[in-house]
């Protein structure tokens, strides 16, 4: 029934699916604004509600992706807008670019190495270890690198989503708990580990948080693209 509607009325079905997606997200955003709980993150709540709804309506991922193509197009300028806090804080950031690149490069090496090592020890599947080791970059880069390194890109996409959600939910709280209260340090930590989702959360805290998170997001992605093609094969030789 639903599939026939999607096929016969593509425009109406796209409007219907977009309406459901936006409505669920707006409901979650209103709940978070009312209750001020980190667990009411709109993206997390939307996923938890939307997936069962799509299963109930028998709408697969390809159909949903095609129907929400317009929403995906609108997300691109929204992501670019995250660079505005970076512009605001650019004068301050440029004086520390050597330290920032050094810290983020070390972080990339450590994260890839630890993730790969733990996956090999616990799961003992190289393709999954590769996928999990590339979880802290944006989805297009992570999936491309995973495919090049013969990993499982579907697991990479899921791991990237989880890293973004939990980093955005718990990152600032955890950093405050362990005594890391500097806005610069929090921005670099969350931006490098939780990419766009974490950055979107930090922008709401302060412009400085968002600026440093944007820097970490961009530089970490570039460093991962440069480092992982030689680091992952090296880890495979040593650990497998």
From TrEMBL:
Main location: membrane
Transmembrane segments: 6-28, 35-57, 99-123, 155-175, 211-232
Residues of the signal peptide: none
Keywords on record: Membrane, Transmembrane, Transmembrane helix
Keyword presence, Cell inner membrane: no
Topology within the bilayer: Multi-pass membrane protein
Superkingdom classification of source: Bacteria
Protein location: Membrane
PANTHER family: PLASTIDAL GLYCOLATE_GLYCERATE TRANSLOCATOR 1, CHLOROPLASTIC, PUTATIVE SEROTONIN TRANSPORTER
Name this protein carries in UniProt: LrgB family protein
Organism name: Colwellia echini
């Amino acid at each position: 029934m639903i599939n026939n509607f999607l096929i016969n009325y593509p425009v109406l079905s796209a409007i219907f699916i977009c309406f459901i997606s936006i409505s669920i997200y707006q409901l979650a955003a209103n709940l978070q604004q009312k209750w001020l709980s980190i667990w009411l993150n709109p993206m997390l709540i939307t996923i938890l509600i939307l997936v069962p709804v799509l299963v109930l309506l028998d709408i697969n991922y390809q159909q949903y992706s095609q129907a929400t193509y317009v929403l995906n197009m609108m997300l691109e300028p929204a992501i670019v807008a995250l660079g505005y806090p970076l512009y605001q804080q650019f004068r301050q950031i440029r004086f520390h670019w050597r330290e920032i690149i050094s810290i983020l490069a070390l972080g990339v090496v450590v994260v890839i190495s630890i993730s790969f090592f733990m996956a090999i020890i616990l799961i003992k599947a190289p393709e999954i270890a590769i996928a999990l080791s590339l979880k802290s970059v944006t989805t297009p880069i992570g999936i491309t690198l995973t495919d090049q390194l013969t990993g499982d890109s579907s697991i990479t996409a899921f791991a990237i989503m989880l890293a973004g959600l939990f980093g955005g939910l718990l990152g600032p709280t955890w950093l405050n708990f362990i005594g890391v209260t500097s806005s610069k340090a929090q921005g670099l930590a969350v931006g490098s580990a939780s990419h766009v989702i974490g950055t979107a959360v930090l922008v709401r805290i302060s412009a400085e948080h968002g600026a440093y998170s944007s820097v970490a997001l961009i530089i970490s992605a570039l460093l991962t693209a440069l480092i992982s093609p030689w680091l992952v094969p090296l880890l495979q030789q040593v650990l497998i």
